[in-house]
C-alpha cells in the first residue's frame, strides 16, 4: 500500500497523531507520507488516519 497526501490538506495533524510512523508535518505545516510503501504492520493505523482526515486528503493505493 502507498499513501499520498493531496493539496486539500489543512495541516490539522490528525494523521500524524494517529500514525506517526507514516505521516509527519513538513516545514509548511502540511502533512506528508514519508514512508512508502507502507509496512504491513502500519497498514491498519494508516487506514485509520485516512478515515479520520477531516478533508479526505489522504489517498491510499
Summarize the structure.
The chain has 61 residues and is of the alpha+beta class. The protein contains 2 helices and 4 strands; from the N terminus they run βαββαβ. Strand 2 and strand 3 form a beta hairpin.
Task: Describe how the helices and strands are arranged.
Layout (H helix, E strand, L loop, with lengths): L2 E3 L8 H5 L4 E3 L5 E3 L9 H10 L5 E3 L1
CATH class: Alpha Beta
Individual helix count: 2
| Terminal residue distance | 6 Å
- The assigned structural class equals alpha+beta
Could you state the oligomeric state of the chains shown?
single chain
**How many domains make up the 3D coordinates?**
1
CATH topological fold name: Alpha-Beta Plaits
Helix content class: 10-25%
Poorly predicted residue ranges = none
Strands, total number: 4
Strand order of the largest sheet: 1-4
What would you report as the Rg, rounded to the nearest angstrom?
Answer: 10 Å
Indicate the proportion of strand residues.
15-25%
| SSE order, one letter for each helix or strand | EHEEHE
CATH architecture: 2-Layer Sandwich
How would you sum up the global shape? globular
Please describe what this structure looks like.
- This protein is an alpha+beta fold and 61 residues long.
- The chain has one domain (3-60): Alpha-Beta Plaits.
- It is built from 2 helices and 4 strands.
- It has helices spanning 14-18, 43-52, and strands at residues 3-5, 23-25, 31-33, 58-60.
- The strands form 2 sheets. A two-stranded antiparallel sheet has the order 1-4. A two-stranded antiparallel sheet has the order 2-3.
- The longest helix is centred in the last third of the chain and has 10 residues, at 43-52.
